[in-house]
Structure formats: C-alpha cells, structure tokens
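A note from the maintainers: we've had questions about how concatenated examples are separated. There is no special marker in the raw files; a new sequence line simply starts the next protein. For clarity in this README we add a label.
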Amino acid sequence: MIKEIEKIEEIIEYYAGERNPKEQENLVAMLREIQEVEGYIPKEAQEKAAEKIGIKTTVLSCIIQRYPSLKGENYGHEIVLCSGARCGCKGGPEIIDAVKKELKIGKDGISANRKVHVVIRNCLKQCKTSPNMMIDGKLYSGLTVEKALEIVRKL
C-alpha cells in the first residue's frame, strides 16, 4: 500500500516527462526516488509507473531484481547465503535448504511472513571461514545447519 501517494505520483510524472523515460538510467533513478519515499517500491507504484511511461510492469520488476539496492518488498532483513565451491563442499547446500525451509521462502525469495529476503550468491569471498552467510551486511562464518538456524530464528 502506498503511503505517500502524491509524492510518488509527482516522481512518476517527472520521469514520464523526461526526454527518454524508458532508458534504464531514468527508470532506476525513478525507482530509487520512490524507494526513498516509501522505504521500498510497492507493486502499486510499479504498476502506475509502468502504465505512465508505457512499459510492462515486468521491466520494472526485472530492474528491481538486478539492482541489490532496490527493494520490491517491504522486508526487514536480507540473508545472503553462499553457494560457492568451498561452502558447497562444507555443507553449504544443506544450510541453504534448511534456511529456506525454516523461513518458508517463496519463489520470489521472500519469507512467508514477508519480513526476510533470501539471496543465494555464488561466493561471498570468505572461503577460509566457510560455510558463510550474511545477514543485513554482517558475516556469519564456520556455520553448521544448527548454527545457521539458531541465528535465523532470532530475526
């Protein structure tokens, strides 16, 4: 639900009136401004922007997915799980599966309670201390399934 509807509409109007409103650079700038107002980019705002600019909503959804700084959901925490080779041979896949199951992660990477976003990254560049997980920018290393679940349950 959009809280600041007038501000959002003003932002959309501004970018729709730009010389090349469909260019990725303009779309990203518009999405960032909307996020500054709301804290994330609500679906309603994505739909209004897509309609006004004359693009499909899926274009904006793809941009939001490609830019880690953009949030398409109002989640409170982001968990990044490592799927790199070293983490993989030390139990990383089991940790990924356990965390996803515990939080009931959907295909969109969002937990059932809509409070956690899970991302799988090929490597967190912390191979010496694998397996690794990052929560809201804080690294957790040398994990087991049990340790990872204990940390995740505290969120």
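[label: protein 2]
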Amino acid sequence: MTDWLVPGTRVLVTGGAGFIGGAVVRRLLRESTAVVFNLDKLGYASDLTSIEQTLSQLDSAAEGRHQLLQVDLVDAQTTAAAVRQADPDLVLHLAAESHVDRSIDGPGAFLESNVTGTFNLLQAVRSHWEQLPPARQEGFRFHHISTDEVFGSLGPQGRFSETTPYDPRSPYSASKAASDHLVRAWHHTYGLPVVLTNCSNNYGTWQFPEKLIPVVILKAAAGEPIPLYGDGGNVRDWLYVEDHVEALLLAATRGRLGESYCVGGAGDHGCASERTNKQVVESICALMDHLRPAAAPHARLIKAVADRPGHDRRYAIDATKISTELGWRPQHSFEQGLEATVRWTLANLDWCRQVRLRAGYQGERIGTRSVSIMAS
C-alpha cells in the first residue's frame, strides 16, 4: 500500500522509536520513498535498534530518508518547531504512554503525554496545515492511532465496532479516549483532515518487555515464576504488529476523512484471534517446551497473582468496516504470529536484557499500588 504514497512524501511519525511506531518506520523505509521524520522523546520504552538494523540493510540513500527528532510532545514550543522542520504531508500519531499497569501507579504521566501532548501536536499540525499551498493542503492527513480499551469491557458475547460508546476503565484508556475526542473536535471545529483507528492488543518482534507476551517468554526462558492475573480468564483480541502496520498505512492513505476504523486480529471473520490470558500463557509454555525441551514442562512455572484493579474482562474487535472499505485482513494467525515472536525473543535475549536494564525494569510486576490499597 505504500505505493499509494507520492514519491518523496514527507511523513511525520510520532512515537517512531516505540514498538508499533518503529514497525511503521521500518515499513516506510523498506517499501516506499517517503522521507520519514521520527518524532520521539526517547523515553524508557523507546529504542532505535530495529531502525538502525533496517537502515544498515538498505542503500545509503535510505539513511537520508530517516531523521530523528527528539521531542517531548508535552513541550508545545519544541513540538511546533519539530512540525515546522518536518513540513509533513502525512502525520501518523502513535506517541503515547500505553501500559495500563504503569497508569495505575502514575496516572499523571498519561494525562500529560496522551492528552496534553496530543493537544500540542494538533495545534502545531493545524497551524502547519492551514498555511500549506492548496495542492498540498488537499492531500494532507492526520492519522490518530488509538486503542480498543477506550470502549471499556465486553461480556461473553459481542465485539467492539466504530459505533460502540466510549466507556474507559483505566487511567490509560481514559487518557486515550480524551485524545480521540480532541482529534475529532479538531476535525469538526477547524476542518483538520483526520482519520482514526482503534486497535486490539498488539504483539510481535521488538516489543518492550513489559507487556504480557514478552514478559511470559522471558520468565519462561529464565525459569522464573510466570504471573497470571486473577483466574486468567480475561480475554483479549491479539493483533500481530505487522498486520497492524498494513491496516495503519491503508487507513492513513485511503481511509475516509473524519472516520474511524477498528482493527483486530480476526479481521471480519469471527473470533479466531481471541484468547484468554491463561490460553496465551499456556500456548507460550507449549512453544517453549518444543524449543527448549530440557526445561519442560514450562507450565509448572505459572503462578496465580492478585488481579489488576479494574481489569477489563473481554475485548474483541469487529473489523468489518476496514475490511469492507479498504480490503484489509490480517495475514497472520495467532499461532503463526506467536511462534514467530517466541523464536525472535529467544534469539534476541541480549537486546531484551539491554533495554530492560536501560529502563531500570527487570520484569517485576507494576500497578500493584492500588491492589495493596484495596487489600488494606
């Protein structure tokens, strides 16, 4: 789909040193001639290793198409200056604090980054868009990437769609819901040409190892107890990150202005990507038994722990709209994506150790502050 980008398109990717943003940047560098401005504050979960590896595999011209802008969107002045420097034709806004457990312990950072940061970016982009010549203004787009968590929690049946009412349950999802509303308001009030997407749980290579799947792989590899929240029955819709990148670039270049698109791992054909947390953990243990049989059975390491406060029971996505309108469907089954992720993680344990060490995170549980308060 990157063929739909005009050669030399100037693309501003916020959060481009993060997990999903980095995958977007790598795809743009490999499969387009876009000039990519990678705006990232280089926080604890940021890492440029994957992009550097990609650039080393491409010709020398590719290096000139990637420019890092180390900027925190909370700073309005430096944000505005970065937008002026990038002079973008397309903005992909992925920068966000995104870990629910961390939002429980420190909600303020999520309001600053996800709400104030999005506001500052919208103001800067609006100013840029309004002064563009007519031809560039006509083709300009601002794509805001959000989460299915803004919709709250589902019961045993049903799936989230673009018409599902918002019902956020955590500081993280509340901050993302607020940012979604800001983007829609800037479209309706100022005419800013926007597209929104709400995705399900992403997983894949180069993910910072604090989320469920990389945590479980690393715990299993180290022979450490694998924590399982509550009864392990919480259900998530799992989306392989490379499939998500396809959807993002389709929505950014072909999506209808002012519209939102829900993106899930099952596409529009049922619940094949839904798994309980217990099923995910057990699947990883089974793969570890196959890949490292000497340490089997890895399932003996699973340990039930107190549930997360306000833990949403089930998420699931109805991706009919993006499938019907834009022709998107995921290309990886959960089994394929998970095996690729486990194999990659085991082959890149040094990288996992280095990024955890740099972030001061060694796999300990986060988000227990409210648990202890509720128990007291």
